[in-house]
Write a structure and sequence with these properties.
The protein is mostly helical and 212 residues long. It has helices at 7-19, 28-42, 49-56, 60-66, 70-93, 99-112, 116-121, 124-131, 137-164, 173-191, 197-208. The protein is built from 11 helices and no strands.
């Protein structure tokens, strides 16, 4: 399943605008970033097309030319959200010298996202899993794939730690990765209730004990 926006859709939108003599081009990534914030804060069902047009700073006609409906905007925003977050996460963990350090950096990344304004905004993956995955097969597949990628990444870091000696050999990489996945997704849920940085970052130190 592919949720990315076809280049032809964007081209058609631009060409149609030019045909009217009033060209209106916009940065698709910036528009989707704004849609991400709305969906993360409000959820899918509580977000209206009017909310999206205001947040994306587009006329409703432009939204409908680029996306056929609200669900299409949502799926494209999910892709954008995951792409940006994955890039940020990999840049953060890249600073770790050992597998164990990289696991800590990954957990700290999610702890930082789970407090203050960012925590209140929430996570599109967690929100989608809770709100839509049971009833929408497209979203269910997307959420499953996203969570699986995170779990695989954590398992890979744990195995690296066992190889470089920073994590004991007895640590089960698959089960521990699943435990840490549950922790980081839980952080994002709890972060929606309004938590301090200290409340979230202390969880990293506790979680790291499972790698001892």
């Amino acid at each position: 399943m592919s949720n990315s926006l076809p280049d032809s859709v964007i081209t058609d939108h631009i060409n149609a605008s030019r045909g009217r003599g009033r060209p209106r081009e916009f940065d698709m990534e910036q528009a989707l970033d704004k849609a991400v914030r709305v969906f993360s804060e409000r959820g899918y069902h509580a977000t209206t097309v009017c909310d999206l047009t205001q947040a994306m700073q587009l006329a409703s006609g432009s939204v409908y030319k680029a996306f056929k409906d609200k669900k299409s905007v949502f799926l494209a925003a999910l892709d954008r959200y995951k792409t940006v977050r994955d890039t940020q996460l990999r840049a953060v963990i890249g600073a770790g010298a050992t597998g164990k350090e990289q696991v800590r950096l990954a957990l700290a990344f999610y702890a930082e996202a789970s407090h203050g304004a960012g925590g209140l905004e929430g996570c599109m993956v967690v929100g989608s899993a809770a709100e839509l995955a049971t009833f929408d097969s497209d979203v269910a597949q997307w959420v499953t794939a996203a969570l699986t990628r995170n779990e695989v990444l954590l398992g890979t870091l744990i195995r690296q730690g066992r190889q470089d000696g920073s994590i004991p050999q007895h640590v089960d990489d698959a089960a521990t990765a699943r435990l840490l996945l549950c922790l980081i997704q839980g952080m994002r849920v709890v972060g929606k209730t309004g938590r301090t940085r200290d409340e979230m970052t202390v969880l990293v130190d506790i979680a790291m004990k499972v790698l001892a």
